[in-house]
Write a structure and sequence with these properties.
The structure holds 2 protein chains of 2 kinds. Chain A contains no helices and 11 strands. By secondary structure, chain A is mostly beta strands. In chain A, strands 2, 4, 5, 6, 9, 10 and 11 form a 7-stranded mixed β-sheet that branches. The model of chain A has no long low-confidence stretch (mean pLDDT about 95). Chain B is an all-beta fold. In chain B, the strands form 3 sheets. In chain B, strands 2, 5, 6, 9, 10 and 11 form a 6-stranded mixed β-sheet that branches. In chain B, strands 3-8-7 form a 3-stranded antiparallel β-sheet, with no helix packed on it. In chain B, a hairpin with a 6-residue loop joins β5 and β6. The chains are: A mainly beta, B mainly beta. The interface between A and B is medium-sized, with 25 and 22 residues.
């Protein structure tokens, strides 16, 4: 039981490049979310999903796309990377009745 | 709208002293409150959930709906408690759910 797995752990991108941050969970959780963590800003919600085929925007969705074709996977796509997207990204999941959200170990992204 | 306020960015105490990390929330529905802890450069770990009313690592938190607060307390701080602490508010409306975090409080416990 791996929990929430994020790949890659580290990534450096050039401005304008695109990439996908992967998130997978093996707990059959319905709810999944993406956050970015920046110094002094805490964790801000980017996008979230309450089940396969259902996604919604969080606080800071601009520049990011998501899809949820399966229960297990919730990839986050950066369409055209900008230096302002330099951050640590966390994926989290939760079952409807679970105690709380389980977090992945994060992806540290640098955009130069 | 859901909102969480943690008024202290930094909190420093000595080992053995009591510690209280403040959290206030704003939400029109029925709130679900959590405390998460993040040790240096690690993933966030769930510390407490208000419904369970349990004590983890000596920490407790009581939901006060009148004051819209969910402060985290520990009577005797330990050096290993040094970490970032985040208060989070979950809300379910129309079948949807999202979890919103405060900006966090960095706790340092000095020897």
């Amino acid at each position: 039981n791996a929990g929430v797995t994020q790949t890659p752990k580290f990534q450096v991108l050039k401005t304008g490049q695109s990439m996908t941050l992967q998130c997978a969970q093996d707990m059959n959780h319905e709810y999944m979310s993406w956050y970015r963590q920046d110094p002094g800003m805490g964790l801000r919600l980017i996008h979230y999903s309450v089940g396969a085929g259902i996604t919604d925007q969080g606080e800071v969705p601009n520049g990011y796309n998501v899809s949820r074709s399966t229960t297990e996977d919730f990839p986050l796509r950066l369409l055209s990377a900008a230096p302002s997207q330099t951050s640590v990204y966390f994926c989290a999941s939760r079952d409807r009745e679970a105690y709380g959200y389980t977090f992945g170990s994060g992806t540290r992204l640098t955009v130069v | 709208a859901q909102r969480v306020t943690q008024p202290e960015k930094l909190l420093s105490v000595f080992k053995g002293a009591p510690v209280e990390l403040k959290c206030n929330y704003s939400y029109s529905g029925s709130p679900e409150l959590f405390w998460y802890v993040q040790y240096s450069r690690q993933r966030l770990q769930l510390l407490l959930r208000h419904i369970s009313r349990e004590s983890i690592k000596g920490f407790t938190a009581d939901l006060n709906k009148g004051e819209t607060s969910f402060h985290l307390k520990k009577p005797f701080a330990q050096e290993e408690d040094s970490a970032m602490y985040y208060c989070a508010l979950g809300g379910r409306q129309g079948g949807s759910e999202k979890l919103v975090f405060g900006k966090g409080t960095k706790l340092t416990v000095n020897p």
